[in-house]
Each structure stands twice: as C-alpha cells, then as structure tokens.
Amino acid sequence: MPPFDVPEGDPFGTHNLPYGVFSLPGSVDRRVGVRLGDHVLDAGAAAAALGSPYVSLLARPSLGPLLAAGRTAWSDVRRALTAWLTVPAHQEAIAELFHPLSSVTLHLPFEVADYVDFYASENHARNVGQIFRPDAPDPLTPNWKHLPIGYHGRSGTVVVSGTDVVRPSGQRKAPADAAPVFGPSVRLDIEAEVGFVVGVPSERGRPVALGDFREHVFGLCLLNDWSARDIQAWEYVPLGPFLGKSFATSLSAWITPLDALEEAQVTPPQRTHPLLPYLDDTGPEAEPGGYDLRISVAVNGHVVSEPPFSTMYWTAAQQLAHMTVNGASLRTGDLYGSGTVSGPSERERGSLLELTWNGRDPLELPDGKRAFLENGDVVTLSAWAPGPDGVRVGLGEVTGRVVAG
Amino acid sequence: MPPFDVPEGDPFGTHNLPYGVFSLPGSVDRRVGVRLGDHVLDAGAAAAALGSPYVSLLARPSLGPLLAAGRTAWSDVRRALTAWLTVPAHQEAIAELFHPLSSVTLHLPFEVADYVDFYASENHARNVGQIFRPDAPDPLTPNWKHLPIGYHGRSGTVVVSGTDVVRPSGQRKAPADAAPVFGPSVRLDIEAEVGFVVGVPSERGRPVALGDFREHVFGLCLLNDWSARDIQAWEYVPLGPFLGKSFATSLSAWITPLDALEEAQVTPPQRTHPLLPYLDDTGPEAEPGGYDLRISVAVNGHVVSEPPFSTMYWTAAQQLAHMTVNGASLRTGDLYGSGTVSGPSERERGSLLELTWNGRDPLELPDGKRAFLENGDVVTLSAWAPGPDGVRVGLGEVTGRVVAG
C-alpha cells in the first residue's frame, strides 16, 4: 500500500495532515482531502468506508463544516485520521481512496467570509517607512507599537494557489506629474504572508480574548498579497489600500491545523512598549503566541528571500483579540493575513519593494534583473515549521503566474 | 381587499415595489416580500398561487437568486408583480398573501459578499478636511477629484435596520496624551449613506464599464455607517479605517430597484477636473448617473439634517467602474456605500462630526445637547425620491438604537 509508506522525514507525514479540497479529472465534485506525502486521501470517502461519524464533517465540498465544528471536533477528527493512516485494519479499508497529488485539481478550501490584512512585522514596517517617508523622525507611525494595524481586503478575489494573476490597470501619479495617468501597473509586487483561518464564529458585541485564539482559529496557510505599488501610492491617502490590492490575493491549497504546529510555537520578540491588557501577552501564564515558520520566496524557481515568521512583532492571537475588541463578530471562513513577513537581514525581506529598495537595487535573477514583476514571472512561496523529533511540518506552497491584462 | 387600496400618493404604491425578506410570528422561515403600502406581499407564495415561473426566484429565503438573475429578469418580475397587484383576477388569487408590516420580522435581505465604502460627497470631504487638517492648503487630498476614494469594510457586521448597535470599545489617544487609553468610544457617530446592491457578478480580470452599471446593480437602500471617531482617529494612519467602523453597519430592510427610480435620475455636479476615460461621464451619450434622493436624519425622532444625494460628486456608476478597473471581480450580494451624504448647507450634513463641527457646536435636541451619540439614542435615516406624476418613491428607513457594551 504505497500511499502509507511516506519516507521518513517527509514534511507531509502523519505528523502534519493538512486539509484541502480537490476534484478528480472529469468531475466537478469537490471533496475534502487530507495530504499524506504526495498523495491526497479522499477524507469523506474514508470516513464513509470506516463508518465514522465524521462523515458529516468530511464528506462535504468545502472545509466549512469542519471549520465550524470547533476545537474538540478538530482534535477528534485529527486523532481519527491518524488512526486510519496508521492502523493496518483501517489502512486496508481506505487504501483505494488515495489519489496522486499530480492527478487532482486543488480548489480554494473554504469560502472566505471577511478578509483582513495586518501589518505586523516591525522590520517590514520600518523598511516601508524609510522608503516612503525618508525624512520622518521615526519610520514607524505613532500607533504601530500600540496596536496591530490592519484593514479589510476583498474576499471575493482570494484565489487558490496556481491561479494566474492578471496584471491590474489603474491610476498612478508620480509626484512630479501634473495629473494621474492610466495603464497597467509598472510596480507589481508580492507580499509573503501567513494566513489564519477562523473556524468558530463569535457573537457581535463580544470580544474574543487573547487566550481564546485556539478556540476560534483552526489553522494557517500561506498567502501572497499581490500589490500594485504605483496604484497603491496614489490612492491610499486617507482611507488606505484599495485597488492596489483588491485584484488578487493567493492562498495555499493546504490548511495546516494548529494542532500540527505545537513544536513550532515560540515567544514573539520582546515588547518595547507597554501593552493595553487586551493585547498583553507578556504575563507568566501567556501562551508563546509566535510561530517559527521558515518561509521561502522564489521568482521563476530562484529563491530570492527567506523571511522568518518568528520575528513578527504582533502575534495572530493579538490580531484576533484586536480585530474583535470593538465587538466585531467572527464568521466561519474569516481569513486574516499576518502582513508581509520580513526579517532583519536583507535576504529576509518579504516584498520586492524592500528587496530592491523600491526598485533602486534590482534583483539579479538568472533570467535578468527584476525591480518589480514582469509578465510571465512565477512567484512561489513555500514554508516549513519544526515538528516532532526534528521532522519538518510542510506548509505547502502558494504560487501564481503574472499574465498581461 | 384592503391591501390593494393604497392611498393615492403613498410612497409605497405600485410605482415603487421594493423587495425585502421577512418572517412570520413563530416561524423561522424567511420569505421574499414586496412592500405595498403598509403591507408586505409574500412574493414566493404569490408566484406559486399564480403558477408563475418566477417562483424559482421568489420562493426563496433571500434575494440572492433574484439578484443573480440579471436585468431582463428584474424587469420581467417587476412587470409581473405590477400585474398581480393591479389586475382584479390576479388580485383575487393573492389577496390572502399579504401581511401587515407591523406583524412581520424583517431580515437582512441578502447575504453581503464584499462591502466597500466610498467617500464621494465633496461637501463631506471638504468638511472633514477642514476639521482634521485645518492648516492644509486644500481640505481635499490631491487624489480626491481624480478617483472615487474607497476602501473595504466588514461585511460580517452589516445588520438590518432595527438591530441594536453596541457601543464599541477600543484604543484612543488625544494628541497630548503620552499613551493610548482603552474604553468605550466617547465619539460615536453616524454616517448617512446610500448603499448599492450588486446582482450580476463579473469575471476577475474584466473591468465593468461605466455604461454597464445597470446591468450589474439591482437597486439601492439606505445605509448608516456607524463610526467611532476617537478609535478611527488613532488607528487610521497608514492603512485606513478598521475598528472605528467594523463594529456595525446598518442597512434598510427594503431594496428599491433602480427600475423604480427612473424619474429620480439627475446629472451629477459639474466636473471641475478632467476625468480619465473609464470615469468620464461628461460625454453627450453618458447617462445622467446621479440620483435625486432626499434623505432625512433623525435622532430620537427629531430631524437634525436633510442631506441631498443629488449633490454627490462621484456617481454609483463611476464607483462601480473604479472598483473593478483593476480587474477585481463582482459577486452577487456585493454592497457598496456612497460615503456620507452632505449638502452645501449646515442642515444638510450627514454626520454629527460635521453637524457639531467635531463637537464644538453641540446639537440642541428636545432631550438635551448632543455632540456625539449617547446610549439609548435612536438614529433613523429615511428618504424618498421623485417618482412618476409627482408621487414620491419611499426608500424606507434604517434605524438603530445605541446600547452600552
């Protein structure tokens, strides 16, 4: 039964078990899948074959029902899957329900409700501040160390990894120009981010406490927040990014459950400013909050950066607490991005804006220089996290090709 | 048959026919309703009783299927409804399918996909600029006359008229304070807006032209974009409003079809700056684009302002063209707000921020002074538009009471 014989150390072994949604060739039926090595298990069919009660959560066209089921169900289903994949009698019953990854089509694994994007990397915020406000006394805005800055994005244009990204057109205006001009963006960029997927909803008027993060958030994925810097620069004062971002946001096809990332938890960077109680994660009983995820950014297969998620100043738990502290409710399928992940060193920056210092220092790629993205360029983010016994937990990848409009 | 005997000049006569979703006492079933006078017709039951093919669009728990059906279906269904309500044989068949408005519960009439809010009133933008940037050479930002500024809001907290609004808590910081403080907002405000409801989706990568507005937008409603000015002021640089807005946005229960507003179309204000072609509505063949909607803002039943929608600089058609010009796709149920509607005179301002000049000149209400909203205050927006033969088209109302958190 080859699917079960995942090589030792495979980042998609039974310690991982990320969820996705796939369809088979010639079929429009979408099915919940669990990745094992380079195969996908038809999880709903497996549950049915084994007479599992989880068929109601898994034999569905979306992860929605599983996401809504809550932490206890998430752990129970994960335990059941582990048994199915490791106990010989169960293995036998489901052996025919695997498909090679290369043979299936992967879909957006859940319907995105609200999409929020944060700005939580201090290195990124400092780089952006230095690039755009070189004369400011502090590259960080006065609020940056007091709250995780965020804004709502367009959930209707969140697309699954592998989807082509059409170069957006829009208005841009250089400071010296008398009037804006219209045309395809000439400063198309990426932002390497981690996305967090909300499962359990909350009531309007009831903030979610810092310590309840794991009760609401099911897991995480990789996210590329494509950005047209020229469109963004002209439009964003005073109400923030809009068309510079809303044309596409790419998501990895696999959602890694938080349960697979126990060993990846780390303490976030030292807090340099006192935090208001609802954000304060410095107490002795606070959970670590950070995650040690090693991201890799490749353009046309050439790695240009390795942003370390462990350096993020604001954690996903703080972001959730902040996002709801005004009484805003959560829905199943809410997605929030960490913001661009940038480490302290040059090769750890999560955007071309920073990597090329706004185009001043183009990257030298095997196929030529790049200040920003050209049509035909393929951007791929991938990542892994430390798992049990030194094994890596693979976070899959999010990839997309830029095509002309 | 009293329901049919709507008094002459009733703003909810057969020239109007707005759509909503209601349920009957003791039932959780939601039904599409059409308002006639102070009754609601169970439109799905009527279609079934008359053997109409539109039962598939109307016997549904949401307006979604009707919204998705497109302009031809919208007009056909409207013609059919008019016949049902005016031809005696049809009247007889549906006479028992009316319910007094006072006996039903009204619900959010469709699932909000993406929610975008614009900033399209020049009077409003100038007032805000003068209040917050008194020393700036121009109260408008440099981009204001070149594009309709907008941003994404939280669709998960859009609520139907009548829903209580919990006063949000959050961070605020006065310029003189050393650090932010946390607590209930002390500057809770309203924004009187008109909301536009997208029916027909568009493809990613394919902008919607100015002239295709009516092919995609089904109708409009009233919208109160509740705003916590103190939270907003501290958080909004550099990525725009977030928690100052995301706690609640109230929508009127009735969606008025554009077909009911033919007589209300007006030419928008003179364009003072040349527009890029995708936004240019000044050509001889351009549709008027504006709507003459007379809005009324009441606090605890006392009218404090009457903002005229005809003064909006940017039209809903321009907003749709702009929102999609970067290739962003539309979904059925997308909702976009016009931005606060403010006319040129003091009694035409659509927010307390402007009406009280940021609290400097409190309103004198029968129950006391108001700089911003107090707990228990009920805010009601209502509106009408000119209809055929001098009859008004009622836009219903959106109301909400502020309650303590």
Automatic annotation (TrEMBL), chains A, B:
Substrate binds at residues 119, 133, 232, 236, 340. Keywords: Calcium, Hydrolase, Magnesium, Metal-binding, Phenylalanine catabolism, Tyrosine catabolism. The keyword Calcium applies. One of its GO terms (biological process) is L-tyrosine catabolic process. The active site is at residue 124. Its cofactor is Ca(2+); Mg(2+). Mg(2+) binds at residues 225, 245, 249. It comes from the Bacteria. SUPFAM superfamilies: FAH, Fumarylacetoacetate hydrolase, FAH, N-terminal domain. The keyword Transit peptide does not apply. Its EC number is 3.7.1.2. Ca(2+) binds at residues 117, 191, 193, 225. Pathway: Amino-acid degradation; L-phenylalanine degradation; acetoacetate and fumarate from L-phenylalanine: step 6/6. GO terms for molecular function: fumarylacetoacetase activity; metal ion binding. This is fumarylacetoacetase. The lineage of its organism: Bacteria, Bacillati, Actinomycetota, Actinomycetes, Kitasatosporales.
